[in-house]
Write a structure and sequence with these properties.
With 157 residues, the chain is of the alpha+beta class. It is elongated, with a radius of gyration of 18 Å. The longest helix has 14 residues. It has seven helices and six strands, in the order βββαααααβααββ.
């Protein structure tokens, strides 16, 4: 990753223009412009293990469990997260499926696909979906019945 000063950019988070730096990855992924104040807030949040609530999070209405898991995931590597939360094969498949889409419908056509992928019946998969939602590993998408999300950034992302 490369970090460089940027004079003509606005912060992605707040729109501010003071002390904006651009973070660019060597693999060509999208760049991120962030101001000094937002960098400090993010660093403070990461070091405390509690991520600040964004407008999208408050609009979504995440459960306390999902907020806790999001904050914890931001301080963990993806491998450590899998070891702690996804030791069950069905849980891992459901989580990775939802995470791959960010937000996706699970209770319709996806249920059949998940049942095939996990070699479990739809009832068992539904129980795992409910369990993952209770733990905060996936969350119901507001206003979309049957949809779930899992969009966690990990420390190694």
């Amino acid at each position: 990753m490369r970090l460089r000063e940027a004079e003509s950019c606005a912060c992605l988070f707040c729109g501010g223009r003071d002390g904006v730096q651009v973070v660019a990855r060597d693999d060509g992924a999208a760049t991120l412009a962030i101001c000094a104040a937002c960098r400090k807030e993010l660093m403070d949040a990461w070091s405390s293990g509690v991520m600040p609530e964004t407008a999208a999070q408050s609009e979504q209405g995440y459960s306390d469990a999902a907020m806790r898991v999001m904050a914890e995931a931001a301080a963990m590597t993806e491998e450590a997260f899998e070891e702690k939360y996804l030791s069950d094969e069905v849980d891992r498949v459901v989580f990775e499926y939802v995470r791959g889409y960010g937000q996706t419908e699970l209770l319709g056509g996806a249920m059949g696909l998940l049942s095939i992928m996990t070699e479990q019946g739809a009832e068992v998969v539904r129980e795992h979906i409910d369990g993952l939602a209770e733990k905060g590993l996936i969350y119901p998408v507001a206003g979309k019945p049957g949809w779930y999300g899992a969009d966690y950034p990990f420390a190694d992302d």
